[in-house]
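Practice set, problem 2.
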Amino acid sequence: MALVVAWVALAFTLPRAVPRTLTVDITCRSGNSVVGVWIEATAGGSGWASAGVQGTAKAARYTFSHGFGGDYQVRAGCGGTADNWAVRTASDTRGDLYRRLDCDDTRYLPPDPAVCTDVPAG
């Protein structure tokens, strides 16, 4: 009986699948290109974002299909290559489906990542 109760309790505490697509527009303040984006999700399911359709704006668009709800942090590379980022950046942790980030890669002080700030849409 205790085993059944433990399984039921575990089932209620596991993250629930909530399919959603995250869209992030990122600008590197220095003018460097965004060379890669990692989504670090607090509920699990972290991974590499895909380059989205580029518009006429300076921002690079990335999308990520996420199987769980919850907050996430965006980690982006400004400059360098997809395999070797010149500057590592990181945002705050939030749960918005759309984010526009201004990454201040001009103030990079290793080993800490440079800061990406959410810019209000509009």
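Problem 2, part (b): a different protein.
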Amino acid sequence: MQTIQADNYPINFNEKGYEALNLHLKENKYSNLFIIVDSNTNDLCLPTFLPFLETELTIEIIEFEAGEENKNIETCVQIWNVLTELGADRKSLVINVGGGVVTDLGGFVASTFKRGIDFINVPTTLLSMVDASVGGKNGVDLGNLKNQIGVFNLPAMVIVDTNYLETLSQNEMRSGLAEMLKHGLIFDKAYWEQFLDLKTIDFADFDDLIHRSVVIKNEIVTLDPTEKNIRKSLNFGHTLGHAIESYFLENENKTTLLHGEAIAVGMILESYISLDKKLISEAEYNQIKTTIKSIFDDIAFEENDIEPILELLIHDKKNEYGSIQFALIEGIGKIKINQLVENELILEAFKDYKS
């Protein structure tokens, strides 16, 4: 697959990625190398990654416990302390090998340690390949509130090796598929239509679908690196999706949702809102709802769940001047940003989702 040139860094694929990495290590005089992993990728991915490295640098592995609940400032403090104890300096390099939790947190750790050291991301989940690989967003959660603390800072490069997908469960693959569906809905109708019937997808060509998804996100981010305008389109499904994800994460009576599972619900809800605002047709809405529900299991919402979810919207990062901002689709493949939505319409969307 062809290398994608993002904003001042390359996204390399499969074997080309390791060639580019080793060339980068030769050309830059790093003092030492730190690889950040979680407990899953340490076991499942690091044994594949390490043999590709061609370097005489001292390599230290820093592992933290897997899970969204560990994507917090306390974990960062622990890793900053380890880096300090192991003699990391401003010429050290960090390589983050893992899913979105690892690349988000590892990128934030590197971006803030000694005011910033170089880092490289090696996303190992489908979600992180098509989402976290592009855009330079690094950060951690604040309690149950998603990605409240962070910075925009670009990696030196990204390596997307689709062989790591073999380590994923079906649920993890579906979670990543949600972001790919989103890219079609907001930007490319023809791309969306390739997912209308998963039985017709030739998974031998799945690398091409991943590559197209990364291209779409990169095009949007390149136009608006710091999310002042069109990059807000990437928030489709995420305004309600993040609130749902946070609520299920903090509620001990609920089963924690994967990111893509929550975003799938968010896309259906926000498509209903788009329908109510006459931005899409009923036929388009039915196609979106039917397609997403054919891939993802329904999530059960009780009556007393909805109000706490709405309260979480107040903390959404996309809010401006106290107003909740939605990105809604204006026909499949197009987007309309900065849309205000009243609570009554959100409640109607939940009722329709459950029907």
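Answer key, part (b): The mean pLDDT is 94. DSSP finds 14 helices and eleven strands in the chain.
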